[in-house]
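Regression test case RT-17, inverse folding.

Input:
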């Protein structure tokens, strides 16, 4: 067994090295401040010369022959991620925020002895620098700037991590700024997320949806079965809740005549955190009047497939581990009750007695807390146990138990179930969709039943929302609605865990 104390000296030495490096860099900062002039802005100038991005130069001169000179002078800026100082010629790799790199060559012949020595004395790995000079290709064929002038753009006081050693997941999450500097995948994930959001908005625009924003601070939480975060407003002297879902406000918009509406924004749920859950997460919700859960499923499939193409160029995506996953084609739609009956070997319907479900759950090692032990809860837990793990392709699981879906319209032809689907991709729930319940009388009855569950100790149960009911009483058209986690959509496209898809996740 390894002695835990054996690692302590190494850790202490590494810490001492960082402290020593910071002290040396602070002294260089002091020198830059002391030598600051109007022409040289010290360690943190307000601006530096930039005529081109590194990526632009790489694209423009992609076919430049080794040893060629362009006669073109350019100024670029970037972070020093590699440096090699020799007698009369110094080399550095400058990296821009998008990961593009270019070589800077600082020679005695071009900049003179004083400037060359200053480069050697003052420039460290991690510093941002601006270089000006002719664009050339080195003898080895590396696109380069033959530097005629340079300036510090920002002095780094702490060293970069080793670019050749992989950061641990915990380090990547806690210090995402370093992760973005040293790891291509981190930057690519940020870019992928931006492309996904742009694609979602473009698809919605093609279907005449309007994007809106609804309150994050709410006087009453609702729209989902989840435990809220509680806060307080000093101005209103009132208890408020961070929203768990925008649903009840977006439906108000539909009542008001915005027939196609969506929102991409943050939700907050005071629950557990794991590989597929985060207390704070980005959510897409959309509602379309005069359609149902079939129509909204078609829209959801289109949204996801278009997002995959925006990131990967195809509906076949490549995950971070190299696995290819096909999001294309028409996705399967299966019945929750029928698939559970088939997988479990027991005929289970909306009329199956609760005691029978309890016995099957007990035999399967499934425990359901008594405070939430309804027919629907047992059916859903049994379905996850028997069916979920066997799903490989993207699959819409249709027609859920009535008592677990208080905001959903009862099925038009199957008693005891509602017109709801959950979309499963990669073994996790990616999205959910409804034929929305628009009858205010039935909605009130459902809220009352939820309130009874809350009284029994169910922290996730909804309360009676009188303002929302008042809106429904003014008439809401037949509507299909859906909700999808943006972080989970990135998981489906990239194969990463949820903490990797969120730029700055909450960590303890």
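Golden output:
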């Amino acid at each position: 067994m390894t002695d835990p104390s054996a690692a302590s000296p190494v850790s202490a030495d590494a810490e001492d090295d960082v402290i020593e490096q910071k002290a040396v860099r602070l002294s260089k900062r002091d020198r830059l401040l002391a030598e600051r002039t109007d022409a040289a802005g010290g360690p943190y100038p307000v601006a530096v010369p930039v005529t081109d991005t590194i990526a632009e130069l790489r694209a423009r001169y992609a076919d430049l022959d080794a040893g060629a000179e362009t006669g073109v002078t350019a100024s670029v800026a970037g972070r020093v991620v590699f440096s090699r100082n020799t007698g009369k010629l110094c080399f550095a790799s400058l990296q821009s925020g998008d990961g593009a790199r270019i070589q800077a060559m600082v020679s005695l012949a071009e900049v003179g002895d004083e400037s060359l020595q200053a480069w050697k004395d003052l420039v460290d790995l991690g510093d941002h620098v601006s270089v000006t000079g002719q664009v050339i290709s080195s003898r080895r064929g590396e696109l380069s700037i033959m530097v005629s002038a340079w300036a510090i753009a920002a002095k780094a006081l702490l060293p970069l991590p080793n670019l050749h050693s992989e950061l641990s997941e915990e380090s990547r999450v806690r210090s995402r700024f370093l992760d973005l500097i040293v790891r291509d995948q981190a930057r690519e994930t940020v870019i992928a997320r931006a492309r996904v959001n742009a694609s979602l908005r473009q698809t919605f625009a093609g279907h005449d949806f309007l994007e809106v924003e609804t309150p994050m601070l709410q006087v009453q939480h609702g729209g989902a079965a989840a435990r809220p975060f509680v806060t307080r407003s000093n101005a209103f002297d009132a208890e408020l809740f961070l929203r768990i879902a925008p649903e009840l406000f977006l439906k108000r918009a539909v009542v008001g005549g915005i027939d196609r509406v969506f929102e991409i924004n943050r939700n907050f749920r005071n629950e557990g955190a794991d590989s597929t859950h985060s207390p704070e997460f980005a959510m897409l919700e959309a509602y379309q009047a005069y359609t149902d859960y079939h129509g909204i499923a078609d829209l959801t499939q289109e949204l996801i497939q278009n997002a995959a193409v925006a990131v990967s160029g195809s509906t076949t995506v490549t995950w971070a581990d190299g696995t290819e996953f096909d999001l294309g084609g028409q996705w399967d739609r299966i019945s929750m009750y029928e698939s559970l009956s088939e997988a479990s070997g027991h005929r289970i319907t909306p009329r199956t007695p609760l005691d029978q479900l309890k016995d099957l759950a007990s035999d399967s090692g499934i425990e359901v807390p008594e405070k939430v032990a309804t027919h629907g809860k047992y059916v859903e837990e049994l379905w996850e146990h028997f069916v979920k793990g066997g799903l490989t392709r993207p699959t819409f699981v249709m027609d859920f138990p009535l008592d677990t879906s208080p905001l959903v319209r009862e099925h038009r032809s199957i008693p005891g179930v509602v017109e709801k689907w959950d979309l499963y991709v990669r073994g996790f729930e990616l999205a959910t969709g409804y034929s929305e319940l628009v009858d205010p009388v039935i909605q009130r009855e459902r809220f009352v039943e939820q309130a009874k569950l809350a009284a029994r100790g169910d922290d996730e149960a909804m309360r009676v929302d009188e303002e929302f009911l008042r809106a429904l009483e003014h008439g809401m058209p037949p509507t299909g609605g859906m909700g999808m986690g943006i972080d989970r959509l990135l998981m489906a496209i990239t194969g990463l865990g949820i903490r990797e898809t969120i730029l700055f996740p909450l960590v303890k």
